[in-house]
Amino acid sequence: MLIKSLGKSALKEHQVTNESVYLKRRQLIKQMGFFGAGTLLSSTISSTVNAQGLDFFSSEPENTFQRYPLKFTADATNNTEVLTPEAKVTSHNNFYEFGIGKNDPVNNAQNFNIKPWQLTISGECDKPYTLDLDDLTKSFALEERIYRLRCVEAWSMVIPWVGFELSKLLKKAQPNSRAKYIAFETLHDPEQMPGQASRRMGGGIDYPYVEGLRIDEAMNPLTLMSVGLYGKTLPAQNGAPIRLVVPWKYGFKSIKSIVAIKFVEHPPASTWNILAPNEYGFYANVNPEVDHPRWSQASERRLTSGGLFARNRIDTLPFNGYGEEVADLYRNLDLRKNF
Predict the structure, then answer these.
(1) Neighbours of 262 (CB within 10 A)
(2) In which order are the strands placed within the sheet that holds 129-132?
(3) Angstrom distance (rounded) from CA 171 to CA 16
(4) Is it true that the peptide bond before 268 is cis, omega within 30 degrees of 0?
(5) Mean pLDDT of 99-115
(6) Please, what sign has the CA dihedral across residues 144, 148, 149, 155?
(7) Residue 243 bridge partners (DSSP)
C-alpha cells in the first residue's frame, strides 16, 4: 500500500531546505541497480551494499550505541518538500529524558545502551507477545515514509523515517472487543537517562513518559513505528531503538524509546496532559485555529540548513497537511473542546 508522503502543500523554494546530498545518495543507489530492492546506503558508513541480508546489529558492541544502514522498501510516491538536513534532525530534539535543552539529547545520549531491549504488546488482546532488538527490524517489512514533524512549540521539520505501520504490530496481537485505546510507555532507566534522575533536568515530569491513541488512530495507515531515519537506525537522541510517529499530531505524541504497548478499554494517561492539561490535550491534532495558551499555532518555523534563527515561516496546515487521510476520524468531534 502506497501512501502520500506529505499530503497537499504549496511551499516556495525559499521555505524549504537543500536535499541535494540525500537525492544524490538515492540516485547513486538507483544507478547501482539496488533501489528497487529497497537498499539504501549510509552517507557516513561504508558503502558496501548488504545484498545478502546480513545482520547489521551482529557486530555492535554491547556498551556502545552505533547506527547501521537499514534495508527497506522506498515509498514510491512523490515528495513535494525538501528534507530537513540530517544533522539538524539529529541535533535539535525534545527528549527530556536526556535534558530539556535542544542540544541536551545529542550531548547526553551518546552512550545509551539499547541491549538488551524488549518491547511488550499486551492488554486486551488474545495473543500478547514480546519483541527483542532484532525483532524490531526483522518482524515486519520496513519502508521509508517522508513526513512532516510539527512541534507544539511551532517549529517543524521534514524527515525520511524508516519503519512499519503500527497496525501490523497491533493486528498480530489480535485485540479483543474491549480494546478501545492504545497505551505506550517509554523506557524508565534513570542511570542511562539523566533527565529521569533529576526533576530539574527532566522538566518536572513524572517518568516513565506515557502516551496514548484511540485504536482507530493507531490503526490508521499513516501511523508509523519508526526504527530509523535517513536510511539508518535511529540515533539515541531521536528515540532509539523504536519510536512512534503520528504525523498529523504535535510531536510530543510521538513517544520515543518504547518498551510497552498495551490495549486498554479507557483513555490512557498522557504525560503532557497530566503535567499541564490546559495546554496539552489528549488528541493533540495539529490545528492552526486552536492556539496554545501562550503562543499562536497559525504558523511555524521550518528548520532548514540555515541558522537557528532563520525565519522560514510558513502557514500551519490543519492536521499538518494530512487531513485528506485522517479528518474523517474526527468527523463528530469538537476539535476546540477536544484539542
Answers:
(1) 21
(2) 129-132, 118-123, 258-264, 181-186, 210-214
(3) 37
(4) no
(5) 96
(6) positive
(7) 226
Global pTM reads 0.83
Backbone angles phi, psi at 165, to 5 degrees: -65, 135
* Helices of type H across 121-239: 133-138, 166-172, 194-197, 215-219
Long-range pairs, 101-105, Cβ under 8 A, ≥24 = 104/195, 104/201, 105/236, 105/237, 105/238
- Cα distances from 169 to residues 163, 166, 231, in angstroms, run 11, 5, 21
pLDDT in tens, 291-306: 999 999 999 999 987 6
Q: Would you give the DSSP letter of residue 77?
A: S
Question: Pairing mode, if any, of strands 155-165 and 210-214?
Answer: unpaired
- The amino acid at residue 240 is A
Cell numbers for 239, please give them: 528515540
Q: Which amino acid is at 33?
A: G
Q: Which helix (H) or strand (E) holds 186?
A: strand 181-186
Torsion sign (Cα): 262, 263, 268, 271: positive
- For 41-65, the three-class secondary structure string (H helix, E strand, C coil) is CCCCCCCCCCCCCCCCCCCCCCCCC
β-bridge mates for residue 69, sequence order: 232
Name residue 144's amino acid. E
Q: What average pLDDT does the structure give for the chain?
A: 83
Strands 118-123, 129-132: pairing is antiparallel
Q: Cell 548488504 maps to which residue?
A: 50
In the DSSP assignment, the letter for residue 250 is -
Q: Within its chain, how far is the Cα of 274 from the centroid?
A: 21
What are the pLDDT digits (tens) for 252-280?
Answer: 999 999 999 999 999 999 999 999 999 99
Where does residue 128 rank: exposed (0-12), middle (13-18), buried (19+ CB within 10 A)? middle
What length is written for the chain? 339
End-to-end CA distance of the chain: 30
Of 235, 250, 208, the closest CA to residue 339 belongs to 250
- Which conformational region is residue 312 in: left (phi greater than 0), alpha (psi within -120 to 50 degrees), or beta? left
Cell 493486528 belongs to 171
